[in-house]
Amino acid sequence: MADASIIPAGITGMFDLLSPVAPGWGANLLRGLVRSLQIAFGAFGMGLIIGTFGSYAKLYGGPIARDLAAIYTTLVRAIPELVMIILLYYAGTDLINRILEGMGYQRVDISGLVAGIVVLGFVQGAYATEVLRGAIKAIPQGEIEAARAYGMSPVLMMRRITLPAMLPHALPGLANLWLISTKDTALLAVVGFSELTLETRQAAGTTKAYMTFYLAAGALYLFVTLFSSVILESVEKRARRGMPSVKEAR
Amino acid sequence: MTANVAVAADPLQPGAAEQAEAIHIENLHKRFGALEVLKGVSMSAKDGDVVAMIGGSGSGKSTFLRCINFLENPTSGVIRINGEDVKMVSDGHGGQVPANRRQIERIRSRLGMVFQNFNLWQHMTLIQNVIEVPVHVLGMKRDEAMAIGEQLLERVGLSAKRDVYPAYMSGGQQQRGAIARALAIQPRVMLFDEPTSALDPELVGEVLKVIADLAKEGRTMLLVTHEMKFAREVASHVMYLHNGIVEEEGPPEQLFGSPKSERLKQFIRTVS
Asked: Coiled-coil regions in this chain (chain B) (predicted)?
């Protein structure tokens, strides 16, 4: 540690600092990146599940389901994410422990990873609800009607018709949500979860090489985004397989 | 009737069921809010019958067809499909809804509906559209469904479009594909809801020809149409609807040859 802080400057020093082996902080950053990605994946996935139910509730649900979904999306989208995260992280874990104690169980230590996924997933779900609701509304309703007319059960229709048919309309919005999800993980730094941003702050604070580490972190976030774009593009291409190119219709 | 001979020859409709009642509807009412679209319509179709429903726009003929497979819930009336009474319960707002979703799904999977706007599933190729219901609703083996599907595509002249997505097909091709999709479920009755109304004039003929062939081989059909000449040629029974009631009905020669009601006379004059 000590000799790492002696060489704060110089190009060789920079690579030494970022080296993944012992005196360098590269391993810490990569560990933070992996944690960030785990959270982003989990939160995005949870957001998709909540979003699917939320959009179905809003479009097809009874009055109670519709109202609940409306309250959820309105509140979550109204409150700043940072506030939401602090609130859910501390209040949420406290609430669970109180319930457990009330039922006569021991307090549990909720893992930062699980808490992070749940908190961010809850936020993502509200946005995903709206993205998916719009996408389902964009399906030509005749296709849904045909599915009903041929005796599909609601679950089968969702799996075979509604979800695949709405996917091309949802993907641009979902791609946004995924990228937001990768970056929102940085907000978890405020509750002490050592994801990429917090790891970077610790490395930078210890070595005083702020520029080096924050640039490195920025490059890692950028790399995630670029890699995601490639994947998302091919997913969208596949989802739009039955649709003529937009350019042709111009 | 020549149709009966063809019925016996059709492997999908065994001779034992010949002349059994496929659809029986009594005193059907349908109300949308204050608007009563159907004011007590009754009909019955035996196996091999081709019933054509004609009438002006707003006469209720499409709504009637959509009530038969419960795309619309009738407000009141008796619906019996394949000899099975559909059980309805009150929805608490003066209407009624099917009591048993599974019964409706079962009935629907035996009625081959063909829509005005084709409504093929855009994210599936043509053959995938055709085998979708046999495989996923009726539980047929995929290979078997494929074999039947390919035969059907050949029959509607679309073998070459097997792996094409609907968006890349003409309206006439899509509608013939939609007919193949309906036939793939081996339906007891085919329901056609203005199958040529959304087509360019030059594409109407190819679709009508497919439907006429089906009629000739004795397939039971209910056809809502604006094509009077066609209705006269293929139908065994014609119903003229006006303002939600059956104004006149009978064999096509009688209905078109010597219409009794003044309205029908006028209607025939304006559309032909």
From this structure: none
